[in-house]
Structure formats: C-alpha cells, structure tokens
Specification:
It contains 29 helices and 17 strands. The chain is of the alpha/beta class. It folds into 5 domains: 2-50, no CATH class; 86-287, P-loop containing nucleotide triphosphate hydrolases (Rossmann fold, 3-Layer(aba) Sandwich); 297-345, no CATH class; 384-549, no CATH class; 576-671, no CATH class. The strands form 5 sheets. A 7-stranded mixed β-sheet has the order 4-3-11-5-10-8-6, with helices on both faces. Strands 12-14-13 form a 3-stranded antiparallel β-sheet. Strand 1 and strand 2 form a beta hairpin. Helix 12 packs antiparallel against helix 13, helix 21 (491-504) packs antiparallel against helix 22 and helix 21 (491-504) packs parallel to helix 24. The chain is globular and about 85 Å long.
Length: 672
C-alpha cells in the first residue's frame, strides 16, 4: 500500500486497468486516483536475488511495460487471419505423448491416426495457464505439441496478441516470447540476459521483478533447437547472473533452478517434446487439425476471388482419402491446395493423357515446385519467366538448396544461418519472389538472419531431388558428407543405401525422404519435372529394380510395423500398385481368406489407412488366424469400427484383442 501511495493518478488507473488485483487493493487505487496522488519518484522494476534464486518482482505498470505491450501487438499481429484461427482457441488436453508421437515421423502420425486425435477433453486458450479446479494451482511448465505445419507458432502469436490487448489472462503481467530459432545464435546466456532478449525495452539487466504478479516465458519451437536437452547430465545453476551453455540454461529454467517464480510455455513437434521428462510437465496440450468445415473455409480463404476453383480443389482433396487426411494439417493443406489449383489452371493446356490429377505426395510436390520455380502463383498473378530461363536458374539453386536440405535432414537440422548458406554455396541473390516466399523463408532477428524451409516436407522433397541427381555420379556413400567411405557405384546401390538407412533410423526421420525418392522414379513425376529438375527418362531403367528392392523389405518382418506401411507408400509413389489393388479387390469381395501372406498383410495394413473400403467399417471377417492377427495388431488399433466375426478365434486371440483394447493409443469404438 505504501508503494501504491507513490503512484500518480494516471499510473494508478493503469494498474487498476491491467491487473487482477484483490478488491481491497483496487478500492485503495480508486481512492488514490480520485484524490490525484502525486510523486516525484519514478516507477522502476528490478530483479531481486534471494538465496541465489532469481525471482521476478513487478511493482507497477510503467512506461517500459507499455512499450513492451506495443511492441508485442506490432510483432504478433502480422499474418494472423481471423477466419483461420478459431481452431486454435481450443486445445486438446492430453496426459502425455503416445507411442506413435514419440517414435513416428509427423506425416506417419497423421496418416496412422487418420488426423483424429484419441482424446475428448479440451481447454480454451484463455484458460491454458489457469488452475483446472479451485483446489489446484496454475501450471508452471506447460508444453503444447503439434506436427509440422499445424500452427504452433501461429498459436503463440495469437495468444501474445490477445494478451497484449488485455482480452485474456490479465493476471499475467509480463509475457516474454522467445524462439529457439533465436536462441540458436547464442553459445552462452545468463537468466538475466535471457530476460533482456525477450524484453528489449529494459535499459538495465536488473529491471524486472516479482511478488504475486505472474510472468510467462514462452519458448517456441523446441524441435528447432540445435542442441538436444540433456536433463540427466545438465550442470545445476542457481545464479541468474552466471552465463552458461544455452541448453543448460533451458534445463535449469524448466527444472526450477532459475526463474522459479515464472511460468514457462514450450511448444514443439511431438518427437522433440519427449526430451522433457514427463514428471516436470504440469500441463500438456495438443493442437488439433482441420475439421471438414474448417478445411473448406481455409481453401475459400486461399482463393477468395475464385470460389469455383476453391470448390474444385476441395472436391479433388475429398476424393482421395489419403490426401484428405493429410490436409487436416494447415501447412500441408496450403501446399496441396496450391498444387491442385495450379494443375486445374494448366490442365487445359495439356493433352488428355497428361492431365492426371496429382494424387501421390511426389506429384503434389512436383507441381508445387514447378509453380514456385516458374514464378506462376495463382493468388499473385504475374508474368511468368520463360521456361528455359527459369529451368537454368532453378537447376543451379535447387542443386545447392537440395544439398543443404539433405545434409540438414541427416543432422535433424531445420533452421539455417548465413554461415550455412555460404558453406553450401547458396547464392542469396537468387532467393527472391516465389522462391523466397514459398520454398525458403527468411527471418531477421536481433543478432542474425535465419533461413528455414516453408514446411518440413519441402526440405524432404528437395533432399530427395538432390540425392536422386547426385546418385548417378557419386563414387562414395552420399550419407557420409566427408566422402570417406567404401566406394558405392551406380544409382541402384545408392537407392538401396537410402532405403536401408530409413529402415534403420529409430526416429523415422528419413521415411518421407525415401517416399519422395521413390516417387521421383515414377513415369508421371519424371514427365512433370523433365527439363526442370530431372532429365527425361533418366532413371527409368532402374525403376523395376527399385520396385524389387522395396518389395524385398516387405518379407522381413513377422509383425507388420509402420516401416512396412511406409514401404507400401513408397510402392504407391513409384506407381507400382498391383499388390494394393489385389488386396483391396479381395476386401470388397470379402475373399481375403487364404491370401494374407506377409506381403499382402503389409498391403492390408496400408489399405486400413488409405482405402475408402475401410472408411466406415473395417471388415476382416472369415480371413484371420492367430499369426495374421498378431502381425496386424499394431495397425488394428486405429480402426474405429472393426468387424472380426467368423474367424474361429480361440482364447489366445481373444487375449491379444484384449491387450489391444487396453493400449493408450487404441481408437477402436465398435468391435464385432
């Protein structure tokens, strides 16, 4: 109260306006404001160190916080389309990461779960940092997960902007947003310097302080951090002024050794979020993808001036179950929508045979790259470059970008800086127009400029293009950047190497890369990119041998895993559909009995994800035995409605099914 007496009338009114103060204190502030209290002492905030702990104490709402609010509103207001944000105002409240989220590639996560999270509880954005009940306390460490392109950074911007306008969480007096993309540029930081980074209006390190007022530190994009967090071996630090390695600083903040009075919000792709021990996380949430209505609204927003085109694009997406599932992710929906629209715009210029609607991932991305490299964008029409000129420019740029993308992918690196661009010989002057806005994005930060691909799959497609082109002349294993390896001659040997590396990778980070690599061998993709990024019929002689390599991977496993399913996706990309078509036809005719060999079981597991035959109900009547049922167990988890009658099951199979129903990931709702 003594501090409140020092406030001017204007300052007292501001304290009242922005703070959730107890009613008694508000009454005092009202009285002071009406009497016009004056003071010659300027308001200031300070960092107070007590028992070697840094705690944030904010005494009043002065000029520095006002500047901070204005800055946040300005920086977080860009790129937020009101119509597309409704989905982000409700998050899914989850109890932790599922096995699939911890082990699988983002695209495989969406495909396996069919874009439908197995959770019913949700939490409004405005209650994200509030107690769940009257007897609980606010969470200190909150983690929000979502696959690449789902909108994690957009969610952070939405929250910060809404908070800065005073519409939510008025009990939080300071919000300090930081990205791991920016933290990558520092080797060492202290807790004090970290605060100054997030709150640049501070003139001295010791200016933010704490009592009952809350401060929220936001750390966006853990999956982009250059150093894995090691909570087991991190050096303990309790001194807020001591500069330590940035990864150690983050672990100490999360553990509560530093900034223990502040709430911390981390966003991440699911696989990277597992670095944080579950025991330290007070609240975990997940961003949900598009529903059917939201997907339509999103496409309508993309093609505001052409609703006919929007309807045609949506029709094509809905006609392909696999594409429809992936388009629940906004980032992927935007790429697919752009590609299909480009196809529809130009299909009248093609012969009837060539005008095939893009269905596979490789076809979608071939159109997307062709569109970007020609400078022909539907939403911003402009004169296209001559094809010959565009091809020559793009080959050089895509070659160097592809090498950056490939070796970045091997190192799990998705953010690059100027030194990386120079090291890979990338001419930054060529990054202009649609190349800079659609393929490789640029972000200017306080200490450096960051470059990153517009979506994870864009990096993976570029990496596959580089590998496909380099493999024909490479003498050594391309996976060893130094070139020090046993000689590896011929495209097929390099293709085998890539497939084996993908199968052996524990975190599955090469699965989509191998899909794209397979797709680049398909006749349709070669026709699309001939003269642009591929030489006509360059690898056509290897296609049948590559198919043999992929089919050989289907007979090696007793249990049908996501690796087998991804191999089936690779066969679809390369346009070898015979196995899947035969099994799908048998499913339609209910004649699967006796034909479920290991290869056909892999095809069946693939069809459970993509076939419309399994859309309403998965009918596996009269075709399963113990061994087949056991091999398919991990894939049956995600069938909403499962029909298994007339299989003559005995107790051992019933025990297997019982174990499935009790698994955390299980989505079975109806079982016959």
């Amino acid at each position: 109260l003594r501090r409140l007496e020092l406030l001017t009338a204007e300052e007292a009114a501001q304290v009242w306006a922005v703070s959730s103060l107890p009613e008694q204190v508000r009454a005092v502030v009202d009285v002071l404001a009406s009497k016009g209290s004056h003071t010659s002492q300027s308001l200031r905030s300070f960092i107070e160190t007590s028992n070697s702990q840094l705690s944030l104490h904010i005494t009043a709402y002065g000029r520095q916080p006002r500047k901070h609010l204005e800055s946040l509103q300005s920086s977080c207001g860009n790129g937020l389309e009101p119509g597309a944000l409704q989905r982000l105002t409700n998050l899914l409240l989850v109890e932790g990461l599922t096995d699939i989220q911890q082990k699988e590639h983002d695209i495989l996560q969406v495909e396996t779960t069919k874009g439908l999270p197995n959770v019913s509880k949700s939490i409004p954005l405005e209650k994200l940092f509030l107690p769940l009940s009257k007897v609980s306390i606010p969470p200190r460490i909150s983690v929000t997960v979502g696959v690449a392109g789902i909108g994690k950074s957009t969610l952070v911007k939405l929250f910060v902007r809404t908070w800065a306008k005073g519409e939510i969480n008025r009990d939080i007096l300071f919000v300090l947003p930081l990205t791991f993309r920016e933290l990558n540029t520092y080797e060492k930081l202290s807790a004090e310097r970290l605060i100054c980074l997030a709150f640049p209006h501070v003139t001295e390190p010791g200016c933010i302080s704490a009592g009952a007022a809350r401060t929220l530190l936001i750390l966006d994009g853990l999956d982009e951090f250059k150093t894995p967090l090691d909570f087991s071996n991190a050096v303990v630090c309790t001194d807020p002024k001591k500069e330590i390695q940035v990864d150690n600083l983050i672990t100490n903040i999360i553990r509560g050794n530093l900034l223990q009075e502040a709430s911390v919000w981390v966003t991440s792709r699911p696989a990277a979020a597992r670095q944080i021990p579950g025991g330290l996380v007070d609240r975990m949430t997940e961003i949900q993808g598009f529903g059917a209505a939201e997907m339509k609204d999103f496409l309508d927003q993309m093609f505001l001036d052409n609703r006919d085109l929007s309807s045609q694009v949506l029709k094509h997406i809905r006609a392909n179950r696999s594409l429809r599932v992936l388009c629940t992710v906004p980032g992927f929906c935007w790429i697919s929508g752009s590609s299909i629209a480009y196809f529809l715009k130009h299909c009248s210029d093609q012969s009837q045979d060539a005008a095939v609607v893009p269905r596979t991932l490789s076809e979608i991305y071939s159109y997307y790259f062709k569109m970007a490299l020609s400078g022909d964008w539907l939403e911003k029409p402009r004169e296209a470059l001559r094809i010959e000129q565009a091809a020559n420019t793009s080959k050089k740029l895509v070659g160097s970008l592809g090498r950056l993308a490939f070796y970045g992918l091997l190192r799990r690196k998705h953010v690059f800086y100027e030194q990386d661009m120079k090291a890979y010989g990338i001419d930054l002057s060529l990054l202009h127009g649609s190349l800079s806005t659609r393929l490789l994005l640029k972000e200017d930060m306080q200490t450096a400029t960051a470059y990153y691909f517009s979506h994870l799959t864009v990096q993976e497609f570029l990496a596959a293009l580089y590998y496909c082109t380099a493999a024909k002349r490479a003498l050594f294993d391309l996976f060893t950047e130094s070139g020090m390896s046993w000689p590896r001659l011929g495209f097929l040997n390099h293709f085998k190497s890539a497939v084996q590396r993908a199968l052996q990778a524990e975190d599955r980070h090469l699965d989509i890369f191998v899909r794209f690599l397979s797709g680049l061998l398909s006749p349709q993709v070669n026709k699309l990119l001939s003269g642009w990024l591929l030489v006509k019929d360059e690898h056509s002689g290897f296609r049948s041998q590559a198919i043999g390599v992929l089919q050989g991977c289907l007979n090696t496993e007793h249990a049908i895993s996501s690796r087998s399913v991804n191999t089936m996706h690779c066969l679809q990309e390369i346009q070898h559909t015979d196995i899947a078509k035969a099994v799908e036809e048998a499913m339609r005719n209910e004649s699967l009995a006796g034909m479920l060999t290991p290869t056909n079981c892999s095809a069946l597991a693939y069809l459970l994800q993509v076939s419309d035959v399994c859309l309403e109900e998965t009918n596996l009547s009269n075709c399963l035995n113990y061994n087949v049922c056991k091999s398919l167990l991990s894939q049956l988890l995600f069938c909403r409605s499962l029909r298994l009658d007339n299989n003559q099951f005995k107790d051992d199979v019933m025990e297997l099914l019982g174990s499935v129903l009790s698994v955390k990931d299980c989505q079975i709702q109806r079982l016959r």
